[in-house]
Here is the input.
Amino acid sequence: MLVGLAQLATVAGDVTANLERCLLALHEAHEAGCQLVVFPECALSGYMFSDRATALAAAVTADGDVVATLVGGCSSLRLYCVIGVLLTDGERLWNSALLIGPDGVVGRYDKTHVPQLGVDNFVEAGNRPYEVHETAIGRLGLQICYDWRFPEVTRTLALAGAELVAMPTCSPSSSAELADYIPRTRAVENAIFFVMVNRVGAEGPADFAGRSQAVDPDGRVLVDAGGRVGLVLVELDLDLARNKDRDQGDGLYQLHLMKDRRPDLYRL
Here is the structure.
């Protein structure tokens, strides 16, 4: 499967311009032969809002025209995307990720771990169960940004059968070193593909580090986008995430990542 990591520079509050950038990335990905495109957190709205009213004005509804336009793009191009969106029902706000496919919205995840930063000061913490989505391209799980500091999220998705976990993020340059080890750790400890897509550029008091990555089930970084703007391509073989056992072939070194767990000792 060819995956596009859309490392974009989002314009705060300009949903129209941000939507256009995302649609252009979808078309570029289609021309390259991608089956999946992953966008950053809050890709349509921006992130560093200092008041709730401004954030609410940049939010979209799940059944509104903006999401419908994305659905139309994925439908006409016959591909999937994971995109970070600021959702509202008119009063409440959620920092969410949508999985959209050729036939519409496949899944929604609302960020469950919410820091005191940017728009997350004004959103509701998600309470939806962690869910793995069966698609024509594989079994996909979703998480967002700060969630990566809580290994239970990715582990729960892996135990539920995820082959690839996609994580939109807005990670500032001040935490850029986390990209050196957290994506690799989440991938190797669960024997899954971990795809993290960050934004670049400055917004308010923050600048964003990029470093979007795809990591394989053995913890190898297949691509690191650095600080450049644009679409980065990577080919993934999801069959590698379906085998949780490791055997060197001589019988001396064997690992069974899921069967060797000791949940009876993990109760705390």
